Amino acid sequence: MKSLSFSKIIILVLIAILNMNLYARLAKETGGQKTERMKWWTDARFGMFIHWGLYAQAARHEWVKKYERITDEQYQKYFDLFNPDMFNPHEWAKMAKEAGMKYAVITTKHHEGFCMFDSKYTDYKVTNTPYGKDIIKDWVEAFRAEGLKIGFYYSLIDWHHPDYIIDRVHPQSAKTGDEYAILNKGRDMNKYRKYLKNQINELLTNYGKIDIIWLDYSFPSGEYGKGHNDWDSENLLQMVRELQPGIIVNDRLDLKDKEGGWDFTTPEQYKVSKWPEINGKKIPWETCQTFSGS
Q1: How far is the C-alpha of 179 from the C-alpha of 173, rounded, in Å?
Q2: Do residues 113 and 121 make contact, with C-beta atoms less than 8 angstroms apart?
Q3: Chain centroid offset of residue 125 CA
Q4: Where are the domains of the chain?
Q5: How far is 129 from 268, CA to CA, in rounded Å?
Q6: Which DSSP helix (H) or strand (E) runs through 194?
Q7: Closest CA relative to residue 26, chosen from 258, 288, 294, 293
Q8: In the chain, how long is the greatest CA-to-CA distance?
Q9: pLDDT per residue rounded down to tens, the chain (294 residues)
Q10: Residue 225 in contact with residue 168, Cβ under 8 Å?
Q11: Burial letters 107-121, b for 16+ CB under 10 A, else e
Q12: Which of 67, 108, 208, 228 is most buried, judging by how many CB atoms fall within 10 Å of its CB?
């Protein structure tokens, strides 16, 4: 067996140090500190989760672009027509408060790639539609005025960005490796990762204190999936926690095995049989129950 060169040993040591530093940055709080940080959320019990985007006009599920394999060109009509002129966030906020809700989470970008906020990193955004205004800005101000905590949903997946590597949940997904190679020629996931971080930075910088961020989602198993390496999840989460130290983060960055890599687990569309546990220890959880078949 050949011995490692001195330079290779130095590189391996540096990688180990970097990994330890990253671990320390993600797991810098004690269990008691985490409990205290999340206390308002565990006490709140009840919140609103709003999915909203171009797909609302199709009225056939937020995954309609994937389910019906709609191309960007065919989907463009929803962008060109988007004008929710009766949108009244103050009415929504009052109703949420009267119902007993303590927080609300809204879609800033779903898998379709359309941004409901005024991002400087894309033209595919609400301020370029006939509506012309930053929906997220108005929504945040209205819900904050009613005393509700603020949460942002942001899709890690993006079916519109030209550098996002086409995978098995993409509307243009393929059947063979050769087909994927052709579809992904010229696409650069490094550029998409930079876009991802830039947009999350905007969301956590331009709208005041954000209490929850819902990043959705990873699917690392099998071929043509995506996991933490595709999102650079460790560094992305480090940025999130630096920008908003008190923020609560869901568990869909594919960092479930990392201490500090998530705050609560998210069973969706089913009732758990018992309180979720890891290694026999109960963990914070939130069930997501949607209605109207979507």
Answers
A1: 9
A2: no
A3: 17
A4: 34-282
A5: 32
A6: helix 189-203
A7: 258
A8: 72
A9: 445 565 555 544 444 444 445 544 576 899 999 999 999 999 999 999 999 999 999 999 999 999 999 999 999 999 999 999 999 999 999 999 999 999 999 999 999 999 999 999 999 999 999 999 999 999 999 999 999 999 999 999 999 999 999 999 999 999 999 999 999 999 999 999 999 999 999 999 999 999 999 999 999 998 999 999 999 999 999 999 999 999 999 999 999 999 999 999 999 888 899 999 999 999 999 998 887 777
A10: yes
A11: bbbbbbbbbbbbbeb
A12: 108
- Other CB atoms closer than 10 Å to residue 59's CB: what's the count? 9
Prior bond of 217 cis (ω within 30°): yes
- Round to whole Å and give the CA distance between 63 and 110: 9
Fold assignment, 34-282: TIM Barrel (3.20.20)
The amino acid occupying position 210 is: I
| Tokens of residue 246, six digits | 């008190």
- Residue corresponding to tokens 């089913």: 270
Which residues, at least 6 apart from 261, have a Cβ–Cβ distance to it below 8 Å? 26, 233, 234, 237, 251, 253, 255
Amino acid at 66: K
- Rounded Cα–Cα distance for residues 251 and 107 (Å): 17
Spatial CA neighbour of 252 closest among 216, 227, 288: 216
Q: Which residues pair with 153 in a beta bridge?
A: 107, 214
Neighbouring-strand partners of residue 80? none
Taking a C-beta distance cutoff of 8 angstroms, is the pair 169, 66 a contact? yes
**Which amino acid makes up residue 203?**
L
Q: Are 210 and 223 in contact (CB under 8 A)?
A: no
